[in-house]
Design a protein that fits this description.
Radius of gyration: 19 Å
Distance between the termini: 12 Å
Order of helices and strands: HEEEEHEEHHHEEEEE
Number of strands: 11
Number of helices: 5
Helix content: 10-25%
Length: 203
């Protein structure tokens, strides 16, 4: 495959994952840095992907540590691996935070099914009380959840594409402009099963 074809296929995978709960890239690892410069990672659900703009969307509770970390430092890594295709995608870029009351968060909230909205009701993420009751939140609590709902829009500036193979693994790097256009790409060194490194041509 040509490098541009690989790039297009990777983003097509992400767009499919945003609509398919069974996709290998439906759940991604969002890695941020906390106030003490320690790396923090957690699984998030991919809610939308836009290959032309190189953007991904995630939802979060604004009371979570993740929201505070991203408010202080929006530079993140997004990592995904599909066991079926043996493909790893590692993206780096920045996150835009859209809090309660913003137009983007309002639009995203309106698209959520009622059951999903209940996840933002009640205590903050990790609250001990969440394990002490099996009752569904009251309608008023669900309404309050809207005031805690945040939208994260990730703008990718690079993609590290890594394909595990039976013989030789393959790795390619892609770089994007701020508006999303592909600004550069190249094959990168990858280790073979024999423990040796191989490199490929730049494209």
């Amino acid at each position: 495959m040509d490098l541009t074809d690989i790039d297009a296929a990777a983003w097509a995978e992400l767009e499919t994952a945003a609509a398919d709960p069974q996709s290998g890239f439906r759940y991604l690892n969002l890695c941020s840095v906390d106030a003490e410069a320690r790396p923090q990672a957690r699984m998030v659900v991919l809610r939308a992907a836009d290959r032309s703009a190189r953007r991904l969307e995630f939802h979060t509770d604004t009371r979570s540590p993740k929201w505070l970390e991203l408010s202080a430092n929006p530079h993140v890594t997004v990592l995904g691996f599909s066991a079926g295709s043996r493909l790893q995608l590692r993206l780096q870029g920045k996150v835009e935070l859209h809090g309660p009351g913003s137009g983007a968060a309002e639009a995203a909230w309106d698209k959520l099914p009622a059951r999903t909205r209940t996840t933002y009701a009640g205590g903050p993420p990790g609250d001990q009380r969440a394990f002490q009751t099996t009752d569904m939140p009251e309608p008023a609590d669900v309404a309050e959840g809207k005031a805690r709902f945040g939208l994260l829009i990730f703008q990718a500036r690079s993609l590290d594409w890594f394909q595990l193979r039976r013989q030789d693994n393959r790795r390619a790097l892609f770089y994007y402009e701020e508006a999303g256009a592909l600004s550069g790409c190249q094959w990168h060194k990858a280790m073979t099963r024999s423990g040796k490194f191989e490199s490929w041509h730049r494209s």
